[in-house]
Amino acid sequence: MTDKTSLAAGTFAGARARIQDNASRGLWSSRWVFFLAATGSAVGLGNIWKFPYVTGQNGGGAFVLVYLACILLIGIPLLMAEVMIGRRGRANPDGAVARLAREAGASSRWRVVGWLGGLTGFLILSFYLVVAGWALAYVPATFSGGFTGVSGEASGELFGALLADPLRLVVCATLVLAATMLIVGFGVRGGLERSLRFLMPGLFVLMLVLVVYAAIEGEFAQALQFLFVPDFSELTAQSVLVALGHAFFTLSLGCGAMMVYGSYLPEGTSIAKTSILVALADTAVALLAGLAIFPLVFGNALEPGAGPGLIFVTLPIAFGQMPLGQFVGGFFFVMLVIAALTSAISLSEPSIAWLTERFRISRTKAVLGSGLVLWLLSLGSVFSFNHWADYQLFGKTFFDTLDYLTTNWLMPLGGLGTVLFTGWVLQRHVVSEAIGIRNAGLFQAWWKLLRYGTPVAIVLVFLNLLGLI
Ligand code: TRP
């Protein structure tokens, strides 16, 4: 009712009050649900598809160690900052940053940090859907025994045939998009929360089953050695940058995703503790994925550094050889789709929240409108592998360009904006109160890291990308 009255007043203040009205925006029903949602966002293709293949490409243990350091020293401080901005701003990333800037007496131009994040998430989602679609396509292909006894070459050809078939790719990406939009369309409580409650625990259980299977059937000791015994001679400057970039991607940072989830977080929950738990869970899933995949890779004499095809080309060979492989493999791809879906939801929520709050359109309209734009954009990614494979800009297809632009530029830029805003624009006491770290020493350590360590690390990445270092 307050909602209606304020709207009826028709004033700017009324609209703002509506935006900030927690009841109308919806809140997670508990800290546990926020934890599920944030973990669902963090855990995705990044953990299960990307982490194993970049680890394989970068030599294993030493890379894993650097990646863990990046999560700890850069990822966690930034994650806490994003959640804090969201909860204190109680709006979509654009609105939340603008509000906090105004409170701090700073220029509301800082809101660019918010909307750029939403835009980045939107662009990522358009190609993320396509990769999630590959995983979806592999579900029936694996369950039906399509990979039984397959050779390396034949598996590569099967993957190639999928990429060459725009219709199959479009159908799969569209199904993932439809599922994402359906869930997001039902809103925070109704849609996101209800689905996360069973999606996340289900994912964990499937993951454990697969690790146990890999431990029994694969070369577990060799995988442990590969993942956890660092060989620093394998580590290059480039690997350090890959590790940093991946830390961003895997924790869903720099896109407003964690801000918007933070904006639904009830008061009184410790942001620091919850963020650390989310990072731990995310890391645990990545390591579990490594433990599920590498024993099979080594057990079947496959190449750990095979690249993005590690899962889609080499794993089916392993599934094709092992007893009951079609079921283990089928479940594996189901798991990948689930993980991708909970991430896709978080990639779309910042822009959906922005559309509904900024332009006061209904959630349904926002979902249908952005769904259509996303679908059109995703066609560009689909055609990058077939019809448009030859149309390249600077040697990159549409898909590669989007990936490069978002992962290497827009996400770190969003992260940099967020840390500079939090560390240098917001007042220390405001941040301290909002973040809720009671131990003064701990707060000081986080604050220093956020003001100096994190921005310097991100700037180093940019300088490297520009070829300056
Ligand atoms: N973290 C997810 C993964 O590892 C991907 C993701 C979801 C994401 N939301 C994001 C990446 C926001 C960047 C920004 O697959």
UniProtKB/TrEMBL annotation:
GO cellular component: membrane
Keyword Lyase: no
GO molecular function terms listed in the Swiss-Prot or TrEMBL record: symporter activity
Compartment(s) of residence: Membrane
Pfam families registered for this protein in UniProt: SNF
Natural source organism: Stutzerimonas stutzeri (strain A1501) (Pseudomonas stutzeri)
Protein name per Swiss-Prot or TrEMBL: Transporter
Membrane topology: Multi-pass membrane protein
Sorted UniProt keywords: Membrane, Symport, Transmembrane, Transmembrane helix, Transport
Transmembrane segments: 32-49, 61-80, 112-137, 167-186, 198-216, 236-264, 276-298, 324-345, 366-389, 409-428, 449-468
InterPro entries: Na/ntran_symport, SNS_sf, YocR/YhdH-like
Family recorded in the similarity comment: Belongs to the sodium:neurotransmitter symporter (SNF) (TC 2.A.22) family.
Xref: CDD domains: SLC6sbd_Tyt1-Like
